[in-house]
Amino acid sequence: MSDLHPCVGMPQGEASAGTTRREAAAVFEPIPRAVRSARRFVGALIPDARQRETAELLVSELASNAVRYASGPFEVRVQLRPQIRIEVRDASERMPSVMAPRADAERGRGLRIVNELASAWGVEPELGGKVVWFSL
User: Fold this and answer.
1) How do 129-135 and 21-28 pair as beta strands?
2) How far apart are CA 136 and CA 126, in angstroms?
3) What is the pTM of this model?
4) Distance between CA atoms of residues 94 and 103, nearest Å
């Protein structure tokens, strides 16, 4: 059993007038419980309940992929203006793809869910990894 904590570093962000942040980021260990931590991190930043619920679901899907396929910590970045944009950055150069799993498959629906619920999403390769993002 690991003694690692789900969140590697303290969340960083920029405060706006009032208490809502416009942008924040946190780095998480590639362990299953970090998915829940990433979900809570995102949920704490989004004031609208409907958008918060959708963002939490979608970041869970992307964080799960980062835990499953990347070999190191992953970063979640949230931007709230002009629209909500959430990015999951990891060190894997493997590009994700939308799958068509069998009806009895336990996995493979994450990006289909992102595709259906996000207003836009994409993947951007980076040196030493990639960013998978979505907007609401």
Assistant:
1) unpaired
2) 23
3) 0.81
4) 25
Buried b (16+ CB within 10 A) or exposed e, 112-125: eebeebbeebeeee
Helix (H) or strand (E) holding 122: strand 120-126
Asked whether the beta carbons of 82 and 30 are under 8 A apart, the reply is no
Longest dimension (CA), the chain: 49
Q: How far apart are CA 64 and CA 73, in angstroms?
A: 12
pLDDT tens per residue, range 61-95: 999 999 998 889 999 999 998 899 999 999 998 88
* All domains of the chain in start order, with CATH: 22-135 (3.30.565.10)
The one-letter code for the residue type at 55 is A
